[in-house]
Amino acid sequence: MTQSKRETERKYEAPSDATAAWLPDLRGVGGIESVVDQGTQHLDAVYYDTGNLQLARTAATLRRRTGGSDAGWHLKLPLSGDSREEVQAPLSECVPDALRELVLSRTRGADLRPVVRIRATRGVRQLVGSDGVSLAELSIDAVRAEPLRAPGTLASWSEIEVELATDTDHALLDAVDGALGEMGIGRARNSSKLARALEETGVGTPRVPDERAQLATPGSVGEEVLRYLNERICTLVNLDPAVRRGLPDAVHKMRTTCRRLRSVLRSYRSVLDREVTDPVREELKWLSGELGAERDQEVLRERLSEGIETLSGELVLGAVSARLQIWDAGNTTEARRRVLDALDSARYLALLKHLAALTERPPLRAKGARQPNGVMAKAILKEDGRLTDRMAYALEIPAGTERDRALHEARKAAKKTRYATEPARDSVGKPAVRLGKRVKAVQQVLGEHQDSVVARDALRKVALRAHAAGEPGFTWGLLYGREQAAADQAERELQPAWARASRRGLRKTFTN
User: What is the per-residue pLDDT across 221-259, written as a single tens digit (0 to 9) for each?
Assistant: First the structure.
């Protein structure tokens, strides 16, 4: 069983001769009224990683620690700024399966082995506000690091850590930072003890040369595309633990990341060899599909629940909410199983390895060495042409099932056009940004229309079950009618949105 918390902290260099009894006085800084001595702790941690330090390279750490108030296994995952998420598991001899799964997107199935042992003698002080509540913890660590994986040297140093308490305003961290700076105490050069230990013991360093930059011509379209792909791949890797734990919106973000990767690999086939990228695109399509069942169910559940909540009491006939809960429970359980099965599969591991290879050994074509503007503008306009064709076809078809399908295809084309503009924002500039925004507006209208199509299909199925059970169908029919009205409204909004997005003058700026 695991539990998690968000930690926000900064590390600082301390004098080499500092001891646990030495700590700067911060009374009067940022609302700190008193400093309370919490004594001394003796911490002993063994850090685990893969043979090529893949956890450290992706700013994650996994350790088994004894001593202190939170002995056990700790997995730290990067968040934005000074924050990280720490997932804890009870103390055991081997890496807990739950934590091993959470780092799978980083290790890609490689073995986890002890790499370094870090022991620290820690002097702890609580920084307390006027109401007697702890605002932060200030500690000084006398650190000793020992390599475990290969011959190396022992290392030792002292450092200060300031960690905010839960719900403490981040401004306190800035205030303490300023006060320490005035005392001549600067930030630590490493963001974690592990990074410094790896470097100073000679085990290795997570700061490796950027292979993408070495293999792509500087300033080229290849470099631009690879930079975008690398960012999206990192996003997918970082989202994996959140998806496994069922955190809010994680599935949606991971599915969208798959679509972005797949779309850009298609749009920039002139830059990257499609014999390499097309199989990756197919696997991204598979993963997106496995994630889609859970995401689509989330959207449907929220949409239908909101629809019921907006009805006045006399319009809700029968056990409508109960029927919806029964329908949702069965579909959600199955969808969740599909997601976890996919993430635990050998197919997913193979996809992660292929994605890593795209930026580590990029299959660049000759055109990848060209300047980005012309190549990217051409790729964007090509996707935009497909969108124009699909919109023209959809708008000519009479209302009905075929038109619904055509509008859905147009929506997918709008997404591809929008995603094609994203890697080009730095090089192509404002034309790409403007087109992306206007196409997004079309995509959103088409999305509302498609959500209504899916909702109507679900309402019909639920209504049939209710009818078979002898329950009234009035409310389901009313909701169906509302969804039809929402689709009609979306179609009315589509024409002006498309007119703005398809302005000829906007496209001319790509070729001027």
Answer: 999 999 999 999 999 999 999 999 999 999 999 999 999
Task: Evaluate whether 85 touches 8 at the Cβ level (below 8 Å).
Answer: no
Spatial separation of the C-alpha atoms in residues 167 and 200, rounded to whole Å: 35
- Residues 182-215 as b/e (b if ≥16 CB within 10 A, e otherwise) read eeebeebebbbbbbbbbbbbebbebeeeeebeeb
Q: What would the two tokens of residue 388 be?
A: 């124009």
Chain length of the chain: 512
Q: 368: closest CA among 223, 212, 214, 210?
A: 223
Any idea what DSSP says for residue 166? Answer: T
Contact criterion met (CB below 8 Å) for 414 and 439: yes
Instruction: Name residue, tokens 């599969």.
Output: 345
> For residue 81, what is the enclosing H or E element?
none
**Could you say which DSSP state residue 364 is in?**
B
Place of tokens 């893949």: 54
- Whole-structure pTM value: 0.90
DSSP-based three-state secondary structure for 142: strand
Fold of 3-201: Hypothetical Protein Pfu-838710-001 (2.40.320)
